[in-house]
Amino acid sequence: MRKTTGVIAVLVMAVFCAAATYAENVTVPNTFSSGATAKASEVNADFAALVNALPGVKVVDAEGDLTGVSTSWVNLGSITISAPRAGYVIVKSNGYLPLNSGGFTMVGVSDNSAAIGTGSHCIEMYTTEMNMVLPYCVEYVFTVSAAGTATYYLVCRSTVAYTSGNISGVLIAEFIPNKY
């Protein structure tokens, strides 16, 4: 119980600290004066305004069937995040990837569902062992020039076609503003 209370307290402090950081950019719908009674709906509306102004973090499972993955990039998962203004989106994925024997396997994060573009990052792994599963971690920082929604992808390709296997991991996107 004590540990749960401590975790909740830390989360509440983080929200208030982050909200204070964004206070110059946030307008709350209600203002309260000393001694006045506040309605729960008004307080909740103020909290909602503060939370919606915080940078976004999205997490999705990145699990997919690798059967048929070969020399073309294949989309294994996607994540969509809304940026409230210009800044950066850090996209990362980590998990476990089975490797084909005698071939290179590449896994990466991209802003293109079928390729690794110039604004993307991938890692390349090679093995001569059969049925080898290795951990992977890949991340890239994408520039966001204006407010809007963007989708990012976990993509994979291999020099030797997969006949079976599943990738297992997570795909994470986090918005970071240009300035606080």
Task: Provide the fold topology.
Elements lengths: L1 H21 L17 H14 L3 E5 L2 E2 L8 E10 L3 E13 L3 E8 L10 E7 L4 E13 L3 E11 L7 E12 L3
Spell out the key features of this protein.
180 residues, disordered N terminus, four-stranded antiparallel β-sheet, Jelly Rolls, 19% helix, alpha+beta, 2 domains
Protein model, in words:
This protein is an alpha+beta fold and 180 residues long. It has two domains: 2-53, no CATH class; 57-177, Jelly Rolls. The protein is 19% helix and 45% strand. It has helices at residues 2-22, 40-53; strands spanning 57-61, 64-65, 74-83, 87-99, 103-110, 121-127, 132-144, 148-158, 166-177. Strands 1, 2, 4, 7 and 9 form a five-stranded antiparallel sheet that branches. The radius of gyration is 21 Å and the shape is elongated. The two termini are 34 Å apart.
**CATH class descriptor name of the largest domain:** Mainly Beta
- Count the strands? 9
The coarse silhouette is: elongated
Approximately what portion of the residues adopt beta-strand conformation?
A: over 45%
Main sheet overview:
5 strands, antiparallel
Order of helices and strands: HHEEEEEEEEE
Number of domains: 2
Helix content: 10-25%
Radius of gyration: 21 Å
Q: Structural class, judged by helices and strands?
A: alpha+beta
- Intertermini distance: 34 Å
Low-confidence stretches: 1-23
Put simply, the count of helices is 2
Quickly give the CATH architecture of the largest domain.
Answer: Sandwich
Overall average pLDDT: 75
CATH topology descriptor of the largest domain: Jelly Rolls
